[in-house]
Amino acid sequence: MPIIPATRDDGIHVVTVDYPPVNALPVAAWHDLAEAITEAGRDERTHVVVLRAEGRGFNAGVDIKEMQHTSGFHALLGANRGCYQAFKAVYECPVPVVAAVQGFCLGGGVGLVGNADTIIASDDAYFGVPEVDRGALGAATHLARLVPPHLMRTLYYTSRTITAEQLLTHGSVLEVVPRADLDEAALRVAAEIAAKDPRVIRAAKEALNGIDPVDVNHSYRFEQGFTFELNLAGVADEHRDRFVEQGR
């Protein structure tokens, strides 16, 4: 099972993504992830959620090979809806979500952590949205929550990545630690939150979402419309075919 939920006695609920080789999630896994986070938040015993991953990197986005091996727009629509639901589940989880990020965090990975409440990263972690290189758009909404506007635009247009150490200076990453210490660091912050009155924390999460200047759900849905246009025009297929041919 690639999405592994685990309830602890201390009020911390851990959701682990384990989808080798690079945690590039197929359509079903995005929906499974959304369901796992939603269910964790519904459980009154949950005070905080830790979202983590096994393997070389946190998340490599959608499974492009699945998309290219599926006829029509079925996989594209599924991935669009799956990512939307997973990002939304993180953002609307009634309790804070702490993301523990190692290695690469790309595309959909940025969508997840951009909607999280706290990010702890390993010292080898880096973040990026390579959608332009894939003939698609998306997750600028979430990248904009990690860096200032002009930097976001440059990263988006160029498909450059940014390190966890650099994000630390922008305040979007709370702490950068050696990879071996990542889980411990994330659980330490989660435990600090879990020790608070959960009634207050749940109210605080709802209040903070309510004062956000951007509606992330509608903003991301708007972006997805342009991705679909690029697909209808055949542009996205050209780029995804090239990606698959190169064996990445």
UniProtKB/TrEMBL annotation:
GO terms for molecular function: enoyl-CoA hydratase activity. InterPro entries: ClpP/crotonase-like_dom_sf (IPR029045), Enoyl-CoA_hydra/iso (IPR001753). The keyword Lyase applies. CDD domains: crotonase-like (cd06558). It holds the Pfam family ECH_1. Its EC number is 4.2.1.17. Keywords: Lipid metabolism, Lyase. The keyword Lyase applies. It is an enzyme of class 4 (lyase). Belongs to the enoyl-CoA hydratase/isomerase family. This is Enoyl-CoA hydratase. It comes from Amycolatopsis viridis.
